[in-house]
Structures
1.
Amino acid sequence: EDQVTQSPEALRLQEGESSSLNCSYTVSGLRGLFWYRQDPGKGPEFLFTLYSAGEEKEKERLKATLTKKESFLHITAPKPEDSATYLCAVQAYSSGAGSYQLTFGKGTKLSVIP
Amino acid sequence: NAGVTQTPKFQVLKTGQSMTLQCAQDMNHNSMYWYRQDPGMGLRLIYYSASEGTTDKGEVPNGYNVSRLNKREFSLRLESAAPSQTSVYFCASSESAHLGYGYTFGSGTRLTVV
């Protein structure tokens, strides 16, 4: 069974204090790994897709990296507006469904304190 | 661009009542999805439609039905609501269910069944 585990569940940072969020996964035949940001009361907002080990993507203060077993979302010098829940999802082929499925982790709730 | 539009945003039902959640996308995407999000459970796939004219069960389909009305619209129906269906429901779309494209999510429907 495909599994996606995110850690920590919650993270409090001071403004400017860099850190990383982790997403570990066990899937067969990874097609892509996705990072989303979700604000309270809103739907997930797409951030990045990573397709192969060694790949990196950057957007403002965020940088996502991928290995064969996990992905990291590095946050450099965060600001209060970076406070949100960050979701990781992996897409892999499901033989039971006969198609590619997206499996989500439970998310990391990030709070950045001024 | 509207992206993915869900209606209604909030709904309260009594146990046993029925209702349909509506979803429409204006991005000419082929694939559409319905997820539910519960505290501590993450996003779970209810049903999806890989292309117009097809629908398939996801991880938690019991108690739900779906209709892919056309390429733009994908509705979710609760025939006899139960308290266990209290959740936040998200509709999403993507260019393809098979090629590792990111999903675009709507803003959600918050459903309470009493």
Note: The longest strand of chain B covers residues 31-38.
2.
Amino acid sequence: GEDVEQSLFLSVREGDSSVINCTYTDSSSTYLYWYKQEPGAGLQLLTYIFSNMDMKQDQRLTVLLNKKDKHLSLRIADTQTGDSAIYFCATHSGGYQKVTFGIGTKLQVIP
Amino acid sequence: GAVVSQHPSWVICKSGTSVKIECRSLDFQATTMFWYRQFPKQSLMLMATSNEGSKATYEQGVEKDKFLINHASLTLSTLTVTSAHPEDSSFYICSARSGQGGDNSPLHFGNGTRLTVT
């Protein structure tokens, strides 16, 4: 079946940039998502990118997609303590109901 | 943006009892909602797809008689954990698509329900 992999943990200093990486196996993925989960809460959709795009920028967030290598990254500029959370990468193939999630990367921001 | 409300946020119940969790789409209609389960330090596992007006579709390994799903209206789906046991303790999260873009719309999630079975 489909697989989405992420590193488990990332620690950065406040003000630095964070880059969270994700690799996936489903070459038919048409939509790729980044979700944020704070402790005890549900998932918040941060951004998503269509597979025909290479990059998407939304304020402090930049998503890069390398479709050839099936690699997705999320860059958070000027990382703040409020960005500390778990970030999930997810893929979705058009026409299918199922979304496949990675295990989540815990981002720790050090003041 | 699309809002999904889930209730309760947390619940503690005794072993053998049943617990109902509600998932509502507040500002859009959702013909399909999804129920996920999340174990500590793990990703989300899709349990079932809830379809308005018809039977839910369960993922392999999920007991449909234990996890009853009812999607009676376009804005409400419920998950009932029947005869709960301590191993059912988990974080349950529902989600729905806002409908714009159909099956290609992003998922919007509720805040989750933490179930503890004693």
Note: Chain B has no helices and eleven strands.
